[in-house]
Amino acid sequence: MNPRITLATTTRILRQLRADHRTIAMMLVVPCVLLGLLAWIFDGTPVFDRIGAALLGVFPFVVMFIVTSVATLRERTSGTLERLLTTPLGKGDFMLGYALAFGIMAVLQALIATGFAIWVCGLDIAGPKWLLVVVAVCDALLGTALGLLVSGFAATEFQAVQFMPAFVLPQFLLCGLLVPRDALPSILSTLSDFMPLSYAVDAMRTIAAVPEPVGEVTTDIAVIVGAIVLSLALGSLTLRRRTP
């Protein structure tokens, strides 16, 4: 990989995003709308305080997965990727460039969504707010990395969206948001241990409940980061020049 080429790829993608107002709204506004809706539904009850922090990890993950998988596939189906790979741009440069560009958007998304949840929706957390932002950024990057990975297996944008039930919904169901992971049947509990979103939800809940949670969430964050790196590495290996 060439750092100069990687940064040039990041700059190109950010310029494209700046001109795509709908995608920006999808990434920055939709998580806030969903959090606000849930806070409104459970107004006057303790439910939002129990699930709000965990959803700050789930919503960015889902949104970034959808946006990244579709955007990457569009590069391939339009012939852009094929043209780019005839230049010195390598697959690693492409993947990392995309990860950096959407990582910047992930930071903005996490800051906006966390601020909205705490200061507008009234989410009460015991731990430091900055750590909540860090985990939210990691979750968004995880969605980005998995979106880049699965885009290599889709032939159309519709197929890319169809991967959501296969890659996202099982993690959503088993991450402990609906039922505590230790209350799941043993097989499902074991499966949840291999799903990175489980560690994101665990970290968010720890931050919400524990005043000094840094030591307790370090392992969770390390697992999420490892899943990001692994997904990007596998994505660069499965990346195709064109869609057949």
Automatic annotation (TrEMBL):
<feature type="domain" description="ABC transmembrane type-2">
    <location>
        <begin position="14"/>
        <end position="242"/>
    </location>
</feature>
<feature type="transmembrane region" description="Helical">
    <location>
        <begin position="94"/>
        <end position="118"/>
    </location>
</feature>
<dbReference type="InterPro" id="IPR013525">
    <property type="entry name" value="ABC2_TM"/>
</dbReference>
<feature type="transmembrane region" description="Helical">
    <location>
        <begin position="54"/>
        <end position="73"/>
    </location>
</feature>
<comment type="similarity">
    <text>Belongs to the ABC-2 integral membrane protein family.</text>
</comment>
<feature type="transmembrane region" description="Helical">
    <location>
        <begin position="221"/>
        <end position="239"/>
    </location>
</feature>
<dbReference type="InterPro" id="IPR047817">
    <property type="entry name" value="ABC2_TM_bact-type"/>
</dbReference>
<keyword id="KW-0812">Transmembrane</keyword>
<dbReference type="GO" id="GO:0046677">
    <property type="term" value="P:response to antibiotic"/>
</dbReference>
<keyword id="KW-1003">Cell membrane</keyword>
<feature type="transmembrane region" description="Helical">
    <location>
        <begin position="24"/>
        <end position="42"/>
    </location>
</feature>
<dbReference type="InterPro" id="IPR000412">
    <property type="entry name" value="ABC_2_transport"/>
</dbReference>
<dbReference type="GO" id="GO:0140359">
    <property type="term" value="F:ABC-type transporter activity"/>
</dbReference>
<feature type="transmembrane region" description="Helical">
    <location>
        <begin position="160"/>
        <end position="179"/>
    </location>
</feature>
<keyword id="KW-0046">Antibiotic resistance</keyword>
<dbReference type="InterPro" id="IPR051449">
    <property type="entry name" value="ABC-2_transporter_component"/>
</dbReference>
<feature type="transmembrane region" description="Helical">
    <location>
        <begin position="130"/>
        <end position="153"/>
    </location>
</feature>
<dbReference type="GO" id="GO:0043190">
    <property type="term" value="C:ATP-binding cassette (ABC) transporter complex"/>
</dbReference>
<keyword id="KW-0472">Membrane</keyword>
<keyword id="KW-1133">Transmembrane helix</keyword>
<protein>
    <recommendedName>
        <fullName>Transport permease protein</fullName>
    </recommendedName>
</protein>
<dbReference type="Pfam" id="PF01061">
    <property type="entry name" value="ABC2_membrane"/>
</dbReference>
<keyword id="KW-0813">Transport</keyword>
